[in-house]
Design goal:
By secondary structure, this protein is mainly beta. The protein has 5 helices and 23 strands. The strands form 2 sheets. It has a 15-stranded mixed sheet that branches. It has a 6-stranded mixed beta barrel with strand order 3-4-9-5-8-7.
């Protein structure tokens, strides 16, 4: 696959599973993490076969309270893990409190449940507090967020339908095969910083929980200004979308003429403009920004997000 041009179809449903309790966001805003953060020694390497969800998401097998496996969506745009309402009822999980949860659309109060045990392969966590969301679709039982990935490396192997969680490691780029792009960590997510649109600097979030790639108003205006210099703009085309939690919203179809992510060059990239709450969460409302979803990510053989060294690796053929 050529790294210089992609045609990734944007479906009518673009699911965004960003879950971010307000208290956690404030705590992370006030504490700048170090550039390299190594994980605890007792985190074993994890490799799991994944399945493909209804909207092309990667689903991993997860055990809850020694029951399952259940299908959890891998969401690098969520900083906490969540369960669906249906799984909450199935396992008779009780909630004694609610909390504010931020989604791609806005803020909602959601019940909080405690998972006595949550297992992902050999990784085992106890007494996990998780929001319960009205996740649409019977194929998704919950969401695995980046709370599992402190200082570690997540590899999404699209070619072989596998995911791996390993220690942070140094990578080397290979011209024509591997591109390494620097990033920064904020609220647990990785934001690509070495990126531009036709020479104008932008930011890009990697969000494996989003089916389609989104852009904010600043980036849409930048594209429209470039189009106006070339001639009359194309008529607007609206796209109806829906979040994982069933929240409907509309966006505007936009094509990015030339996008650079580090040493990766993409042309004629289809995205959707929707100036959503998610850009406020990540502090990206006032500068051109993208949320890169599965429509672009799945075009690569592998995408590895290294949360220890704050970098993203793209493998392609």
């Amino acid at each position: 696959m050529s790294p210089t041009r992609r045609h990734a179809a944007l479906g009518l449903l673009a699911a965004g599973g960003t879950a971010l309790p307000a208290a956690r966001a404030l705590a992370q805003d006030n504490a700048a993490p170090p550039q390299i953060e190594l994980p605890d020694e007792d985190h074993p390497p994890t490799a799991l076969d994944t399945t493909k969800g209804r909207y092309e998401h990667m689903l991993a097998p997860v055990l809850i309270n020694d029951q399952g496996p259940f299908n959890f969506l891998l969401d690098t745009g969520a900083n906490v893990s969540c369960v669906s309402h249906s799984l909450m009822e199935r396992l008779d999980l009780k909630s004694a409190e609610t909390a504010r949860v931020h989604t791609v659309v806005g803020v909602r109060h959601r019940p909080i449940v405690t998972l006595d045990r949550l297992r992902v392969g050999p990784r085992d966590r106890r007494r996990v507090r998780a929001p319960a969301l009205p996740i649409k679709g019977s194929d998704v039982d919950g969401i695995l967020g980046v709370d599992w990935l402190k200082g570690q490396r997540l590899t999404l192997d699209f070619k072989n339908s596998r995911m791996e969680i390993t220690r942070s490691q140094q990578d080397q780029g290979e011209p024509g095969r591997v591109v390494i792009v620097p990033a920064r960590r904020r609220h647990g997510q990785l934001t690509i910083v070495d990126a531009d649109l036709s020479g104008k600097r932008i930011s890009a979030i990697i969000d494996s929980g989003a089916q389609g790639t989104l852009c904010n108003r600043k980036l849409r205006d930048l594209v429209r200004a470039q189009e106006a210099r070339r001639g009359p703009p194309e008529p607007l085309r609206m796209v109806r979308m829906e979040s994982l939690a069933g929240e409907s919203f509309e966006g505007e179809a936009v094509f990015l003429p030339f996008l650079r992510l580090g040493g990766l060059h993409l042309g004629n990239v289809p995205v959707t403009y929707a100036d959503m709450h998610v850009f406020d969460i990540w502090g990206l409302k006032d500068s051109p920004a993208l949320v890169i979803g599965m429509d672009l990510l799945a075009q690569f053989d592998q995408v590895a997000l290294d949360f220890g060294r704050s970098q993203v690796r793209f493998d392609f053929v």
